[in-house]
Structure formats: structure tokens, C-alpha cells
Amino acid sequence: MVVITGLIxxxxxxxxxxxxxxxxxxxxxxxxxxxxxxxxxxxxxIIGPIPIIFGTSKRTALISAVxxxxxxxxxxxxxxxLA
Length: 83
Fold this sequence. Notes:
alpha+beta; 2 helices
């Protein structure tokens, strides 16, 4: 059962990565040339129990923090359910 669950998680990770790649590719293809856009980015890097939150603006940093918090909660729930 553990091997099957691990395989499913690996396949889900691969599928999510593939979907992300396709979204980036579609965005690059459909981009209008010469149009000036404001680009914002942010992210969360979790090293052990310490989250490092970064963003190009306060808004993106806050969104990244919320998404990171949600992912941590989901991870904790999954770990307790699978243990």
C-alpha cells in the first residue's frame, strides 16, 4: 500500500509540473509583442521549520505567505493521515 501511495504522489508531482510547464509555454506563445506589462513574482522557501518569504511587492509576498501556510497545513494533514 505504501509503494502504491508513493507512486501516486510521484505521478501527481510529475503531472502538476507538466501542467505548469504547459501553462508557461502557452503564456509565452500567446504573449502580445511590444506590449509593456508589469510583472510581479513571489515565493516561499521552507528550510526546516523556517519559512523564507519573498516577493517583488508586499502584495505578492502576502499571497506567497498565505499559499505557503495553506501548503504547510495540507502537508501536516497528509502526514497525519498516512502515518
